[in-house]
Model the fold of this input.
Amino acid sequence: MPIRTIARYLMNHPELISKLANSYLFRRAAQMAASAFFRGKGVGSEVITKVTQEMGKKGIDFKDSQKFMEGLQGKAGQYNQNIDNKLRDAVTRIGQVVEEFQKRQMKK
Done:
């Protein structure tokens, strides 16, 4: 798997890690990952709060939770797919930077 190969390579080259950590692309990827995490956390709690309030307004008992859970799973699945796509893009960009860095190192 290419991600494992990249991870092993990075673990054995601390100076490369330092250079990449100072690059704009890695900082941006970290920002995107953190943003996705906190947005997901916020959306999840908002959805649960809204659904719980709606269930209370309609007098739905929590024993009817199967429909409730199916609705939550659908929303979570859509959001997770969006996050997965963004993280895949970030990993692809990181791979490209590593390849460019390796090419530059070979030219030296």
Observations:
- The chain has a mean pLDDT of 77.
- The radius of gyration is 21 Å.
- Residues 2-107 form one domain.
- Helices lie at 2-11, 14-21, 24-58, 65-107.
